[in-house]
C-alpha cells in the first residue's frame, strides 16, 4: 500500500511512524495510507519555512505573483487528474470536484493581483515636510488546517494569498483525503516557488497541537467543525497567535408563498443533496412560511429525491456519491433514527440505500423530514449528510426569529419575489452570508467568506480583502527630512497641526 508523504522543503518525506488508512468511500476500502506527523516532523517543516522566509519576504510582490500565474496554468492543465483524485478519496462526483477546483483557481487568480493588493496608502505632507504611508508586511511562518470536504478549494482559500503576501506556509490537510491536496501543493514547486515556502504535513491532533504550540508559527487559519475551531482559536490566541477559525453550520432556506416553487425546489435539491450534504454551505433546513407552501414543497421534492442518481463518486453524470467514511455514514443514519424517535415525519428514508456494484460503499440516500421542530437534535445539530428538514412557521418574522436564535450563522437564503421582504431579511438576519434566490451564497474570490456566531471565531473572514489583512501586519511610517540648516526646538506638547 502506498503512503502519502509529507512535503517539506521541496522534498517528499516518509519517515513513517504512525499512519492512517485513506479510503475510497465508494467501495468502502482503504486504497492507501497517509503518514501522520509527529512533533519532530512538524519542527522540520517549521525550520524549512523559517529558513525560506527572509529571501521570500524580500522577493518583489510582482515576482511572487508570477509564480501564481504559472500555478494557475498548471492547475488548469491538471484539472481532470485533480478532480479524479478528489473524487476517489472524498466520494463527490467528478463534476462537483471540477467545480470546487474552479472556485479554488479563482482564489489563485485573486492572489495574482499581489502588487495591487499590497500597495498600501500614502499621504504627502501630513505635517510640514512630513510624509506618511502604510505598508502591509508579512507575518512570517503561518499555518493552515483544513477539512476533508473541500480538499482542493479550502487550502486554496489560504496559501496562495498568504504566500503572495510574503509569508511561508505550513498546510495540515485532512488526513481523510490528502492526495489531491498534496499533488496541488507540489505543482507550486513546478511553478517556480522556492523550497520551504510551502510545506505540507499530514496528521491528526498531534500535528495540530505541535503547530499551535510552536512559537515560530505566527498565525493559524482553520476550517472544520465548531468544537475543533473553538479549541484552536482559544489555544492559539492564548499563545499570542493571530487565529481565524471557521466552524460548522446549519443553513436555513426560507420559502415565502410568493416564491417560484419549481425553481425553488430545483435550487433546494442541489443545495441539500449536492456533495451528499457535506458542504458547510449546504441547505439543511427549509423554513416553509405557511402550511400550503410546506405541502407543495413536499409534493414536489419527493419525486425528485427518488430520482437522484447516486453512485460511485468517480463516475460521471451522477447527482450524489457516498459519505466520506463509514463513521460519517453511521452518524448520519443515527441522526435519522433520532429524528424518527423525536417525532419528526420521515417522508423519504435514505437509510436502506444500496448501490449496485458498490455494496460496501458508505452510501446514504436522500432523506426528507417534515414537521421538524426547533428542539429536535436533527434541527439543532449539524448532520453533514443528505438530510433535509422542513420546519413550518406562520410568517417571515417567525422564520427570521428561528434563524437568529440558532447557534450557527454561516449561510442562509430567502426564496421570494418580494423586494421589501428581501431587504428586511438582508438587513436583520444574523448570518454572515445571505442569498436571495441564491441557495449557496458562497462569496466570489474578490469578496471574503465567513459566517457569524459559532460558525466563525476571529475578527476577519477568509480570503479576498479580509485574507490580505489577515496575512499581513500594518506598519505606518511617518518620515521627515529636515533641512540641514534648520534649527529645531524641543516640543513638549503633543505634536499636532
Ligand atoms: P474536523 O473538525 O473533524 O477536521 C478539520 C481539521 O481538524 C482536520 O485537518 C483534522 O485533522 C483536524 N482535527 C480533527 N480533530 C482534531 C482535534 N481533536 N484537534 C486538532 N485538530 C483536529 O472537520 P471535518 O470533518 O474534516 O470537516 C467537516 C466540518 O468542517 C463540518 O463541521 C463543516 O461545516 C466544517 N466546514 C466549515 C467550513 C466553513 O467555511 N465554515 C468549510 C468547510 C467545512
UniProtKB/TrEMBL annotation:
SUPFAM superfamilies from the UniProt entry: ALDH-like
Enzyme class at the top of the EC tree: oxidoreductase
Record's keyword terms, sorted: NAD, Oxidoreductase
Signal sequence, start to end: none
NAD is among the record's keywords: yes
Record-linked Gene3D superfamilies: Aldehyde Dehydrogenase, Chain A, domain 1 (3.40.605.10), Aldehyde Dehydrogenase, Chain A, domain 2 (3.40.309.10)
PROSITE patterns the record matches: ALDEHYDE_DEHYDR_CYS
Domain Aldehyde dehydrogenase: 17-477
InterPro entries linked to this entry: Ald_DH/histidinol_DH (IPR016161), Ald_DH_C (IPR016163), Ald_DH_CS_CYS (IPR016160), Ald_DH_N (IPR016162), Aldehyde_DH_dom (IPR015590), MeMal-semiAld_DH (IPR010061)
EC numbers: 1.2.1.27
This protein's name: methylmalonate-semialdehyde dehydrogenase (CoA acylating)
Native organism taxonomy: Bacteria, Pseudomonadati, Pseudomonadota, Betaproteobacteria, Neisseriales
Amino acid at each position: 500500500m502506498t503512503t502519502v508523504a509529507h512535503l517539506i522543503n521541496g522534498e517528499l518525506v516518509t519517515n513513517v511512524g504512525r499512519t492512517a488508512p485513506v479510503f475510497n468511500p465508494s467501495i468502502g476500502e482503504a486504497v492507501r495510507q497517509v503518514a501522520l506527523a509527529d512533533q519532530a516532523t512538524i519542527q522540520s517543516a517549521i525550520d524549512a519555512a523559517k529558513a525560506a522566509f527572509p529571501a521570500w519576504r524580500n522577493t518583489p510582490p510582482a515576482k511572487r505573483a508570477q509564480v501564481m500565474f504559472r500555478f494557475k496554468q498548471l492547475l488548469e492543465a491538471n484539472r481532470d487528474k485533480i478532480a479524479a483524485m478528489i473524487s476517489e478519496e472524498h466520494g463527490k462526483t467528478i463534476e462537483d470536484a471540477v467545480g470546487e477546483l474552479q472556485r479554488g483557481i479563482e482564489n489563485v487568480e485573486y492572489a495574482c493581483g499581489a502588487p495591487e493588493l499590497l500597495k498600501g496608502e500614502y499621504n504627502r505632507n501630513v505635517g510640514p515636510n512630513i510624509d506618511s504611508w502604510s505598508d502591509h508586511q508579512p507575518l512570517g511562518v503561518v499555518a493552515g488546517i483544513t477539512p476533508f470536504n473541500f480538499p482542493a478549494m479550502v487550502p486554496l482559500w489560504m496559501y496562495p494569498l498568504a504566500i503572495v503576501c510574503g509569508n511561508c506556509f505550513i498546510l495540515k490537510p485532512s488526513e481523510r483525503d490528502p492526495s489531491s491536496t498534496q499533488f496541488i501543493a507540489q505543482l507550486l514547486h513546478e511553478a517556480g516557488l522556492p523550497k520551504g515556502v510551502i510545506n505540507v504535513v499530514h496528521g491528526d491532533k498531534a500535528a495540530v497541537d505541535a503547530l499551535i504550540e510552536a512559537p515560530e508559527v505566527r498565525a493559524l487559519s482553520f476550517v472544520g467543525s465548531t468544537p475543533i475551531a473553538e479549541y484552536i482559536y482559544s489555544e492559539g490566541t492564548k499563545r499570542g497567535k493571530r487565529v481565524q477559525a471557521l466552524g460548522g453550520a446549519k443553513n436555513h432556506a426560507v420559502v415565502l408563498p410568493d416564491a417560484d416553487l419549481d425553481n425553488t425546489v430545483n435550487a433546494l435539491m442541489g443545495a441539500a443533496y449536492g456533495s451528499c450534504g457535506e458542504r458547510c454551505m449546504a441547505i439543511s433546513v427549509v423554513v416553509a412560511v405557511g402550511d400550503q407552501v410546506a405541502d407543495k414543497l413536499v409534493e414536489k421534492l419527493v419525486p425528485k429525491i427518488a430520482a437522484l442518481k447516486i453512485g460511485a463518486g468517480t463516475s460521471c453524470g451522477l447527482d450524489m456519491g457516498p459519505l466520506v467514511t463509514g463513521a460519517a455514514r453511521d452518524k448520519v443514519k443515527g441522526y435519522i433514527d433520532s429524528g424518527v424517535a423525536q417525532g419528526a415525519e420521515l417522508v423519504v428514508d435514505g437509510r436502506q440505500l444500496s448501490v449496485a456494484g458498490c455494496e460496501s460503499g458508505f452510501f446514504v440516500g436522500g432523506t426528507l423530514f417534515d414537521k421538524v421542530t426547533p428542539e429536535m437534535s436533527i434541527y439543532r445539530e449539524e448532520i453533514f449528510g443528505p438530510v433535509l428538514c422542513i420546519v413550518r412557521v406562520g410568517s417571515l418574522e417567525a422564520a427570521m426569529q428561528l434563524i437568529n436564535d440558532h447557534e450557527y450563522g454561516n449561510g442562509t437564503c430567502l426564496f421570494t419575489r418580494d423586494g421589501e421582504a428581501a431587504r428586511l431579511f438582508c438587513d436583520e438576519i444574523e448570518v454572515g452570508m445571505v442569498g436571495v434566490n441564491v441557495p449557496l451564497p458562497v462569496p466570489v474570490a474578490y469578496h471574503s467568506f465567513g459566517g457569524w456566531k459559532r460558525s466563525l471565531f476571529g475578527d476577519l473572514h477568509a480570503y479576498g480583502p479580509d485574507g490580505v489583512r489577515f496575512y499581513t501586519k500594518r506598519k505606518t511610517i511617518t518620515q521627515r527630512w529636515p533641512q540641514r540648516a534648520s534649527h529645531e526646538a524641543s516640543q513638549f506638547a503633543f505634536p499636532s497641526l
